[in-house]
Amino acid sequence: MNLTDLENSWINQFQQPLIIAGPCSAESEQQMLETAKRIKATHAQVPIFRAGIWKPRTKPNGFEGVGVIGLNWLKKVKEEYGFKTATEVANAHHVDAALKADVDILWIGARSTVNPFTVQEIAEALKGTEKIVLVKNPVNPDLALWIGALERLLGQNIKNLGAIHRGFSTYQKTKYRNNPNWQIALDFKSQFPNIPILIDPSHICGNRTGLAGITQEALNVGYQGAIIESHYNPDEAWSDASQQITPEVLGEMISNLKVRSTGLAGFDDEMGRHRTLISDLDFQVIELLSQRMRISEKIGKLKKENDIAIFQPDRWKVITEYAAQKASETGMSQDFIEKVFKAIHEESIEVQNNIMINK
Ligand code: PEP
Ligand code: MN
Known about the structure:
Residues 265-356 form the Chorismate mutase domain. The protein has 359 residues and is of the alpha/beta class. It has helices at 29-41, 69-81, 92-100, 110-113, 116-126, 143-155, 182-191, 201-205, 211-220, 247-256, 270-305, 313-329, 334-357; strands at residues 18-22, 48-50, 84-88, 105-108, 132-136, 161-165, 197-199, 225-229.
């Protein structure tokens, strides 16, 4: 059986968009119950409550999750407020504990998806489960790893599968915590239109302001839902404080989402898909130009300190020749590329001129 053969009818038990919400981490019974109560009180369609029990942290000595005790709190959330529950599992021990505590939905985190040994261990521990298992994209932009992880699960006869797009790490800091890199997720979606995909705007944005925009964008290209971090007191959260929102803000955000169509049909909107890709590329072009200008500034300072003229004809010749060569290699008009580079160069000279003038 291949991933393309899966029906994944599990998604049909939920109204779309399917929203999974709850705190980044379980911190205390009170925090879990209070957050659940307030999400419930918004009357937003949130059938699944999330909370991280074991937290993968980039550096040691941070809060690494409360561990198994938090599973009891998830159970209470289910009993008292009727949510289904979801948590991240990163090894066989987590799987055993989560299955024993009857967590409904398990997800594999971005740092685990990168590691085939880890994914294999989790898949074997889950062998044959009827639970819904969601796989986050790996932290690095590698579509094959993401697909590979789902194949390992299917290899252990796990068939209720889904994907979560949480963005990709970049060394250069951008406005995103994790760059959405829509192309990869949309390639995934084109290859596996039968696998439900959810957006994780919280880990893409890393802040509270961008969440609604990213979520709407995902719905526009046919995603089935979102997993969003919500905490009753976000500023005091023990992990990912800057991106968590109150249940009330979450409720408001959900009520403003426009569902363009239900099911997978929205994805047929080719125009929306292309526009998303264009916006993504425009964002990257602007980021790159801004990085280029910052380097240009540094060169301006060096030139100033060493009394060197801003315009260096030899260097400009190297740049234009390289651009012309790349234009022909990539099948673009040399004329066009020359215009673009002249504009960039002019701006660069302007930036350096300002440095020279400013004492
Ligand atoms: C999380 O969902 O809290 C989490 C740790 O996410 P990710 O694996 O995407 O970093
Ligand atoms: Mn988090």
